[in-house]
Amino acid sequence: MKVLLINPNRYHNPPVPPLSLEYLRGALEVTGHECRILDLCFAEDVFAALKAAVEDFAPGVAGITVRNIDNGMFTENRFFLDEIRELTLRLKALGVPVVAGGAGFSFNPRGVLEYLGARWGVSGPGERALGHLLDALEDGPPAAGTILDGWQWGADPELAFASRGEQLDYRTYLDQGGLAGFETQKGCYGTCYYCMESTGRVIFRKPESILRELKALAGRGVYQYHLCDSEFNQDLAFCREFLQALIASGLKIEWALYLKSTPYDPEFFRLLGRSGANLVTLSLPTGPDGLRHAAQIKSLAKKNGIRLAVDYLCGFPGDTPEKVRRDLEELKKIHPDTVGLNSYIRLYRGAVPLEACPPEERKFLFGAVEDNHGLIRPVFYSTIGVETLREIAGGDPLFKFEGFEQTSNYQRLNGPAR
């Protein structure tokens, strides 16, 4: 079956190549489906581009990825679903049924499916689940509203995606400040209610498959990456296996990655440095041990020539200006290369239903608090207002306020490690 895989993401701060669609294309073509990627990131007229692609390719179905519901920021919030819904409606008018998926879709599959008006959906990994749906379409379409659980179907950890770059213009992304990405794993063992990517489950890829993918991209002149794992250090044994294989391969790449505060050890950072990692971003929500780990991670990163960015998230229940002030004073002593500050927590899952919040807690809710079942529209929780946070930060240039500065950590840091 012909499948049009659509990237509707037009957010340019920075522009992010649609890695998931390249992975889907690689998996689907192995099973005999013909795929074309329609990348709308830089399209001058998205609807004209959509119509032209449908007329030229004549797909039997379109897959549209919802990478994010919104940009996750309270200040300068951008909500993306209305744009994606309009694309879905145009496809329906052109007679093309739509399957929705992606990380943003998966946090509330039923709610997002209904909001977009798509016919079917895939929650979680799509490589096998979407192939099953396409095979089923050839025997008769599933009922409208069917959502497949991609975690039940899983993903092939040995599949290498050597065709990456054939249907994407990477040069435009790189010229406009973007980076290529790759995955070593899918999912996250965490279940944080403020994170869209928390799943409680992880699928690890085979290192040799990842290396075949990176070697193919190197053949197309791509050597700089940002890892697209939720947080790399879910399992240190796996991390060491991959890093050792990357070092042994002789590939000379530069890459940035996210880490959580544990686990880690000196050998892990030694291998990171030898593998070409040049920037680690540490996710640091307020908590009892995070700053202690941040100090140790800074020391290990510096020893191995790796820059450190910290994403500091506060405003949780129990956070006070005094506590945040102590944290920021400690971060000044640790002195990462940059610290992003955010005190508004986007709620996704596991939180108390908004209507059940007691009055003393409702004053800490911001955004679309009323008539917003499933938290499709952005709702934020904060006990620390942005002006309070600014006063605590005191104008120190170490601190950057997320949502006000439209840059990512790797864009902020272009110099050598300290």
Task: Note the topology.
Elements: E1 2-7, H1 19-30, E2 34-39, H2 46-57, E3 61-65, H3 81-93, E4 98-101, H4 103-106, H5 109-116, E5 120-123, H6 129-139, E6 147-149, H7 150-153, H8 170-175, E7 180-182, E8 185-188, E9 201-204, H9 207-218, E10 224-227, H10 236-249, E11 254-259, H11 266-275, E12 277-285, H12 290-303, E13 307-313, H13 321-334, E14 338-342, E15 345-346, H14 359-362, E16 365-367, E17 379-381, H15 386-393, E18 399-401, H16 409-412
Parallel strand pairs: 1-2, 1-3, 3-4, 4-5, 5-6, 7-10, 10-11, 11-12, 12-13, 13-14, 14-18
Antiparallel strand pairs: 8-9, 15-17, 16-17
Helix pairs in contact: 10-11, 12-13, 13-15
In short:
The chain has 418 residues and is an alpha/beta fold. 36% of the residues lie in helices and 19% in strands.
Features:
418 residues, Rossmann fold, pyruvate-formate lyase- activating enzyme, 6-stranded parallel sheet, 16 helices, 36% helix, 19% strand, metal-binding
Describe the structure.
The chain folds into two domains: 2-153, Response regulator (Rossmann fold, 3-Layer(aba) Sandwich), CATH 3.40.50.2300; 170-412, Alpha-Beta Horseshoe (pyruvate-formate lyase- activating enzyme), CATH 3.80.30. The protein has 16 helices and 18 strands. The chain has helices at 19-30, 46-57, 81-93, 103-106, 109-116, 129-139, 150-153, 170-175, 207-218, 236-249, 266-275, 290-303, 321-334, 359-362, 386-393, 409-412; strands at 2-7, 34-39, 61-65, 98-101, 120-123, 147-149, 180-182, 185-188, 201-204, 224-227, 254-259, 277-285, 307-313, 338-342, 345-346, 365-367, 379-381, 399-401. The protein has a seven-stranded parallel sheet with strand order 7-10-11-12-13-14-18. A six-stranded parallel sheet has the order 2-1-3-4-5-6, with helices on both faces. A three-stranded antiparallel sheet has the order 15-17-16, with no helix packed on it. α3 links the parallel β3 and β4 (98-101). α13 crosses α15. The chain starts with a strand and ends in a 6-residue tail after the last helix. The model has no long low-confidence stretch (mean pLDDT 93).
